[in-house]
Amino acid sequence: MAVYTDITEGELEAFLKNYDVGQLLSYKGIAEGSENSNFLLHTASGAYILTLYEKRVDAADLPFFLGLMDHLARKGINCPLPVHRRDGAVIGKIAGRPAALITFLEGMWMRRPTVTHCREVGKALAGMHLAVADFPLSRPNALSVEGWRKLWDGARPRADEVEPGLVAEVDADFAELSARWPSDLPSGVIHADLFPDNVFFLGDRLSGVIDFYFACNDLYAYDLATCLNAWCFEKDHAFNLTKGTALLAGYQSVRPLTAAEKDALPMLARGSALRFMLTRLYDWLTIPDGALVQKRDPFEYIRRLRFQRQIRSASEYGLGEA
Ligand SMILES: Nc1ncnc2c1ncn2[C@@H]1O[C@H](COP(=O)(O)OP(=O)(O)OP(=O)(O)O)[C@@H](O)[C@H]1O
Ligand SMILES: N[C@@H](CCO)C(=O)O
């Protein structure tokens, strides 16, 4: 459930007076999502999403996130376009929260992505990596190795209760990642959370990428590694080589990887699996049952992490197969 802050019709009408979107026809809260409050609006000029930014998003980061969407949409990437207010701003306030209006994208996210969806997401990711080259803003990745360590410090004392042996496993991951994490690969602004629930399709056609609220500056190949984990495993946790092949081929059809990026991919995929395992584990241990925030399963990513520890070469993901 993701309507943490409710709004009245009066508040919404007053908010919309700042925009050229015409009269409000209807609005309703959207249940999906877990970080912010989202509403679907219909006005005389079309459909929009209103997002109220909740506590886990730092208001100081909003110009970066909204500026990025604006930049990508104008470069032809299928992502929401922030609607500018009459005074030119894109960030307003409603019910005491910072808020923005963005265009509505048609489509739905794929609960079971196919090989074709994996290829399309690879192409779209590479397209975004090319399109950010002249984006002027930057934001450090708070969820890279040092950020993971803080999460681990919080979760470690109880990690063995969740999964016996996890403390020793993850301590060893940190030792290896600290020694081998690459820093000299091509980098720029990455999406950093390109999971299936953040990509819409109309049939086989990718119609939209949403949720840029983890976007930051980091290695492009790390973004691709996150997609390998998020898109190419089956419900039984088995890696699907055909999907991996398609994702990587789709990406490389738009932006070929360098030899160093290919070499680093297993380490990056291991780090990315650790990152999502840790945020999930941290929430699992700290968010009380019954809280509105949706908790995601850390066990899925404990499995991913164990898989990634065994990988020695990107050819095991299907690199160069198609
Ligand atoms: N531009 C858009 N067009 C259509 N639907 C959208 C758009 N933006 C958001 N949504 C809808 O709102 C839901 C939540 O959006 P989003 O993923 O950005 O929220 P969130 O709270 O940041 O969630 P999380 O970070 O957990 O994925 C999406 O699943 C989708 O249904
Ligand atoms: N994509 C993240 C949730 C944050 O958007 C996860 O699956 O853990």
From TrEMBL:
Keyword flag ATP-binding: yes
UniProt keyword annotations, A-Z: Amino-acid biosynthesis, ATP-binding, Kinase, Nucleotide-binding, Threonine biosynthesis, Transferase
CDD domains: HomoserineK_II
Pathway: Amino-acid biosynthesis; L-threonine biosynthesis; L-threonine from L-aspartate: step 4/5
Top-level lineage group: Bacteria
EC number: 2.7.1.39
Recorded catalytic activity of this chain's protein: L-homoserine + ATP = O-phospho-L-homoserine + ADP + H(+)
Family membership noted in the UniProt record: Belongs to the pseudomonas-type ThrB family.
Xref: HAMAP family: Homoser_kinase_2 (MF_00301)
The protein's name in its UniProt record: Homoserine kinase
Organism of origin: Neomesorhizobium albiziae
Upper classification of the organism: Bacteria, Pseudomonadati, Pseudomonadota, Alphaproteobacteria, Hyphomicrobiales
